[in-house]
Design goal:
- Two copies of one chain form a homodimer.
- Chain A starts with a helix and ends with a helix.
- The first copy, chain A, is globular.
- Chain A has five helices and five strands; from the N terminus they run αααββββαβα.
- With 121 residues, the first copy, chain A, is an alpha+beta fold.
- Chain A has a three-stranded mixed sheet with strand order 4-3-5. A two-stranded antiparallel ribbon of chain A has the order 1-2.
- In chain A, strand 1 (56-61) and strand 2 (64-68) form a beta hairpin.
- The relative contact order of chain A is 0.14.
- Chains A and B meet through strand 1, helix 4 and strand 5 of A and strand 1, helix 4 and strand 5 of B.
- Strand 5 (106-115) of chain A pairs antiparallel with strand 5 (106-115) of chain B, so a sheet runs across the interface.
- Chain A binds a DNA duplex (30 and 30 nucleotides) through residues 1-7, 22-24, 36-41, 43-45, 47, 60, 63-65.
DNA sequence: TCCTTTTTGATAATAACTCTCACTTGAGTG
DNA sequence: CACTCAAGTGAGAGTTATTATCAAAAAGGA
């Protein structure tokens, strides 16, 4: 994997945005500093970075795939109302071990969904 | 909401398939008994049924939105390898209550992901 | 049966993403 | 530093899931 300007800008955008950004959001951010970048380059690089373990694909939400630059073990909460993705830093090792013991599922991620405190108010 | 033949067949398909089907899977099943049904009708009715609480939208997986006719409280496990969706019937009320107490998140669903026992072997 | 309103089917439109391919660039090699 | 060439890029076409449009058909009450 070569160290191109585009790749640097994409990874930097993921960190600066820090909002579990989608390809479109990354593109909109990068295109301001590097107007000639193509969306294909953004999509391509995000996929490669997931492959390489530099980013995590946190799934499709509201029609767009979102990514996370925080690769240490953690989970997510997704608000069904405002669609915001929030990190959940608790350790659920005990719960996961119990499920794995019974069903054999090796769980690596948990996505909680519901309504956040802001939207509930 | 009128009781059309199409709507009956779609709901019946969801129950018969019993695999957390996608719109495409429902269409392929229904079209065999009712060859003139349109995909638009399937998409439209699945959305309406979610709105009406007759089905649950369990999110986009592998590019397609999947639905569940089992509306009683339960969670899901998604195998990242075979993409299979499995019901998880444990009650996590204690865990959820703790999170809600700290962060104010009112969690209604949990999606666990990882590797299932079959794919792991 | 008639009337009104909802629903349907066909098709066009949209949105997110992927593919293709000629041109460009990164980074080793001499 | 110039050379080489595989990897990467940009532009645009193609694909796939889903939604919008709208005339025709059907549901269900009067």
């Amino acid at each position: 994997m070569r160290n191109t300007i585009q790749r640097q800008l994409i990874l930097q955008a993921m960190k600066e945005l820090d909002i579990h950004a989608s390809a479109e959001q990354v593109y909109q951010h990068v295109v301001q500093q590097h107007p000639t970048i193509s969306k294909a380059t953004v999509y391509r690089n995000l996929s490669q970075m997931v492959e390489a373990g530099e980013l995590i694909n946190i799934g499709n939400l509201d029609g767009q795939t979102h990514f996370d630059h925080n690769c240490h073990a953690h989970h997510h909460f997704i608000c069904e109302t405002c669609k915001r993705i929030v990190d959940v830093e608790y350790d659920f090792a005990d719960v996961l071990a119990k499920i794995q013991g019974i069903d054999g599922f090796a769980i690596s991620n948990i996505a909680f969904s519901g309504v956040c405190s802001t939207c509930k108010a």
